[in-house]
Write a structure and sequence with these properties.
With 429 residues, the chain is an alpha+beta fold. The chain has two domains: 303 residues, Rossmann fold (3-Layer(aba) Sandwich), CATH 3.40.50; 110 residues, no CATH class. 28% of the residues lie in helices and 26% in strands. The protein is globular and about 80 Å long.
């Protein structure tokens, strides 16, 4: 369960910004908007959070920041070599920030404890890294699991690793950790039991979709082959008013890689391409509709509307997230979706009966219809806008004292709070 995500000096974010999923007293009273966390530090967490703002405000930059954070944790220890540059992107529009490091921190709950983990990096090395934890026991205080700080004058790291709570080959983990890799990633690669639980949440429970339109239908198609799943997918699609009678999934044999012809430019990558394709099966999906005479007419998924394709591709991952209590981050969720379908997807996370594993949804959108009739609580809405220096800022709606969310929607569209496009007359020629 995500508690908060903090970023500093990444893409359009310069000054430190924090996205919080801690429920205020109002949202905490309604199970539709929040759930108990089991940790006294943050007793209630939000089921969803929406980021509103105009194009170019920085909504996607926040999703990219979370994606970079996750990928670097997963791969920094295994994919890089000593001396390789870290592909980080500091704020570009200010010489001061271009020369500063980038910082990330996430607070989350997994297993029987809350974790606070973060790191500071530039393109050369990890400059700082830390992890603290607070078990669910109300009598237990925050514990420092490890800290790592680069001393530029000495060219070495200062380390602090808990002797009480961390068992294992701590010196081996330290000496094996490269300057451009994370200690968390390295220690887990070396079977550090104490760090497997927080690493598991980052790797498996934090799910990020940078664009629903780029989401492959393959996951949903494969689920349809499992017992009971096709009926669930059908019910899901029909609930969004995608009028289909059946789903047909056909799996063909792997590609005959020996018959592939490679261009001269691709020869160097030949072995990697063959290895990737060798056991890859082709999956074709058809959706059947009832024709005018009552007969069933099948249509290839690629020939369906963009909206139907997106809904089909989303169906499997959406149910998987709800079944397992994952935290899902989606950029531009409303794309190619009717507003009613969009609301349906969000509302599944608000339903305590369906979402009984405490899954969370974080999404960006321009679709303000979800602000109507208390569909979302004010704690769940965050505005994203840029200041006069092109720096993105996160502004929680809870900072405004609007009487109710419906009146806020009107005021927001009127431009009272910013975070809307400032349109001007178009003069051609």
């Amino acid at each position: 369960m995500l508690v908060s995500f903090r970023v500093r000096n990444f893409r359009s974010f310069a000054e430190e910004q924090t996205l919080s999923l801690v429920a205020g007293s109002g949202a905490a009273k309604e199970s539709r908007f929040s759930f108990p966390s089991d940790n006294t530090t943050t007793p209630y967490l939000l089921r969803s959070s929406c980021l509103f703002g105009p194009n170019g405000a920085g909504k996607s930059s926040l999703v990219m920041a979370m994606a970079f954070f996750k990928e670097f944790v997963i791969s920094s220890a295994k994919d890089g070599q000593e001396g390789e540059k870290i592909d980080v992107h500091p704020f570009f529009f200010d010489e001061h920030w271009r020369g500063q490091p980038t910082e990330f921190e996430v607070i989350f709950i997994h297993g029987d404890a809350l974790y606070q983990y973060g790191f500071v990096v530039d393109e050369k090395r990890v400059l700082s890294e830390w992890m603290f934890t607070n078990p669910h026991d109300p009598d237990t205080k925050f514990r420092t699991l490890f800290q790592r700080e680069y001393d530029a004058a000495e060219g070495t790291y200062a380390w602090k690793i808990s002797k009480t709570h961390i068992r294992g080959e701590k010196e081996v983990w330290k000496t094996t950790t490269r300057d451009n890799a994370l200690f968390l990633s390295t220690s887990v690669q070396l079977n550090a039991e104490a760090f497997k639980t927080p690493f598991d949440w980052i790797q498996n429970f934090l799910r990020i979709i940078e664009s629903p339109q780029r989401l492959s239908p393959g996951f949903t198609a494969k689920q349809c082959l499992d017992a009971g799943w096709k009926d669930r997918i059908l019910r899901f699609l029909r609930s969004v008013d995608v009028n289909i009678e059946d789903i047909y999934v056909k799996v063909t044999d792997p590609i005959d890689v020996e018959k592939l012809v490679f261009t001269h430019d691709a020869e160097d990558a030949r072995d990697k391409i063959i290895k990737k394709l060798k056991n890859m099966k082709r999956i074709d999906v058809e959706l059947s509709h009832k024709g005018k005479q009552g007969d069933l007419v099948s249509l290839a998924l690629r020939d369906e509307s963009d909206g139907s394709q997106v809904i089909f591709s989303i169906a499997g991952p959406w149910l998987d997230v709800l079944d397992n209590g994952y935290t899902l981050v989606v950029d531009e969720l409303h794309n190619s979706l009717h507003p009613h379908a969009f609301r349906f997807l969000v509302d599944l996370f608000h339903n305590p009966i369906i979402n009984n594993k405490r899954a969370q949804l974080i999404f960006t959108s321009h679709e303000t219809s979800i602000m109507e009739k208390s569909f979302m609580h004010r704690d769940q809405i965050c505005l994203v806008e840029k200041n006069n220096h092109e720096q993105s800022q996160l502004i929680p709606l809870s900072e405004y004292k609007e009487g109710n969310i419906d009146s806020f929607r009107k005021s927001y569209l009127d431009g009272r709070y910013g975070a809307v496009p400032m349109l001007k007359d178009f003069i051609d020629g």
